Amino acid sequence: MTRAVLVGLVLLAISVVVDSAPPDLQANSPGPTPAPLLSCPDLDGNGHVRGPDLSLVVAHFARDAGPGFPNQVSANYRFLYDLDANGVLRGADITAVVNRYGTDCPQ
Ligand SMILES: [Ca+2]
Ligand SMILES: [Ca+2]
């Protein structure tokens, strides 16, 4: 898959999100603010940021944590894919992978 196609898919996903932006779930959450689990978006752990990593984050699109985040999360939510640790799996998380696409992650 070429980078141009990937960017096109991401832009399409983001355009869908703009019309259905979720509420800021952290605004009413007590306690410490969660930090992202990964510093490099290598979601399948192979050391490289490539198509499979982008596919993983897209596959979890909109599987948000729910209003209890960060203390309670929905069964479908996976913190691994929440690359900005805000409790929602949306365009920003996809963009985090696209921005590092083609790079390698330190071991
Ligand atoms: Ca990877
Ligand atoms: Ca997120």
What secondary-structure arrangement, pairings included, does this model have?
Layout: H1 3-19, H2 51-59, H3 91-99
Helix pairs in contact: 1-3, 2-3
One calcium ion is lined by residues 42, 44, 46, 48-50, 52-53.
Low-confidence stretches: none
Major β-sheet, in short? Answer: none
Count of separate DSSP helical elements: 3
| Relative helix content | 25-40%
Bound molecules: calcium ion
Integer count of domains: 1
Calculate the mean pLDDT score and round it.
85
Please tag this protein with its features:
mainly alpha; binds calcium ion; 107 residues; 3 helices
Structure description:
- It is a single chain.
- The model has no long low-confidence stretch (mean pLDDT 85).
- It is built from three helices and no strands.
- The chain has helices at residues 3-19, 51-59, 91-99.
- It has one domain.
- It is globular and about 40 Å long.
- The chain is mainly α.
- Helix 1 packs antiparallel against helix 3 (91-99) and helix 2 packs antiparallel against helix 3.
- The structure holds calcium ion (CA) (2 copies).
- Residues 82, 84, 86, 88-90, 92-93 line the site of one calcium ion.
